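Hi R.,

Here's the chain you asked about this morning:
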Amino acid sequence: MKKLLATMIMTAFFVSCSNSDEAKETNNNNELLFGTWKMQDRFYEGNSYNIDDCDRKSTLIIKTNGTYDTNNFRTINGECKADGGVSNVNFEVKNGRMIISFQDGEVKQAWINFPNENTFEFTEVVDEKDGIAGEFEGVKDVWVRSN
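And the predicted structure, written out as tokens:
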């Protein structure tokens, strides 16, 4: 569950820098990433996971030192409960992707997109789908700024 949520937090910048104005836009997008975010929605293959208000209490704190923390919530037996989280997970934004390195050596990637400065989309990159190797969209989480 912890790695699944962490994976859903990844996304990529779709800005290819060919001049200084575009480079500034990319840097501004990097700065938009930092802060505290609350989960708003989750999708897979375009369909909503129908998350509830408890799931929406989950937070993602992206820090300027290249790490992030999560606090996960989910409904268990009808009650909203804290469901763990992760702390100080290393990440970097490179070539339009957020690359996450877990302490056990596992590496995950995701595309990130900012529909506006208070919303970001984190779409997991998967290497295989229906037995076919390649790059495919996995779960997409939508986060809203909470600070």
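The chain is about 15% helix and 50% strand.

Let me know if you need anything else.
M.
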